[in-house]
Structure formats: C-alpha cells, structure tokens
Amino acid sequence: MARATARHILVPTEEKCNELKAAIQGGADFAQVAKDNSTCPSSRQGGDLGSFGPGQMVKEFDTVVFSAPLNEVQGPVKTQFGYHLLEVTSRQD
C-alpha cells in the first residue's frame, strides 16, 4: 500500500499562504515558518505529519500528497480547515 510522509503549514487565508510560500522559496526554513505561522498542532514539529496512507487525510490533501514531486512546496491547497502549503518528503507506491 502507498505511504507518504509530508509536512504542512495551515493558515486561514490564501493571501497568507502565498506570502509564506514566497518566503520559503526565498530561502526561509519550512519548519521554522510552520512553527511561527501554522494553526495546526503539527506546527510544534515544524509541520511534520509523519507517515500516512491514501484516505487518511482530506481528499484535497491526498490528491496533492500522492501526486506531487518530492521536496517541492505545493499550494495553496484549500480544504475545509483553511489553506495549506504541503511538502511531500517521501513516498512509497
């Protein structure tokens, strides 16, 4: 069964999401940006969500995690929780 590890940043607005994505692409550390800005409890671990399989996360999240290139920041991804930046750190198909 497919498994992935990923980290994310959750914020309430698309504007904030784009601002943080630009900061990360400009060299800011993803984990530090997550700790400083994410509203998800995973922010304490730098946004690390650990390992999970398809169907364990919301559909919009799953779609990106199981198709995006590794180690590239994706987003904004809108879900019922807000706007996410996602980075898939590993995947086994």
UniProtKB/TrEMBL annotation:
Show the GO cellular component annotation of the record.
cytoplasm
Keywords assigned by UniProt, alphabetized: Cytoplasm, Isomerase, Rotamase
- List the InterPro entries: PPIase_dom_sf, PPIase_PpiC, PPIase_PpiC_CS, PpiC/parvulin_rotamase
Organism equals Stutzerimonas zhaodongensis
Q: What is this protein called?
A: Peptidyl-prolyl cis-trans isomerase C
- What family does the entry list? Belongs to the PpiC/parvulin rotamase family.
Q: Cytoplasm as a keyword?
A: yes
Q: Does the record's keyword annotation contain Signal?
A: no
What is its subcellular localisation?
A: Cytoplasm
| Gene3D superfamilies assigned to the protein according to its UniProt record, in alphabetical order | 3.10.50.40
* Gene Ontology molecular function: any one: peptidyl-prolyl cis-trans isomerase activity
Say where the protein is mainly found: cytoplasm
Q: Which residues form the PpiC domain?
A: 1-90
Q: What does this protein do?
A: PPIases accelerate the folding of proteins. It prefers amino acid residues with hydrophobic side chains like leucine and phenylalanine in the P1 position of the peptides substrates.
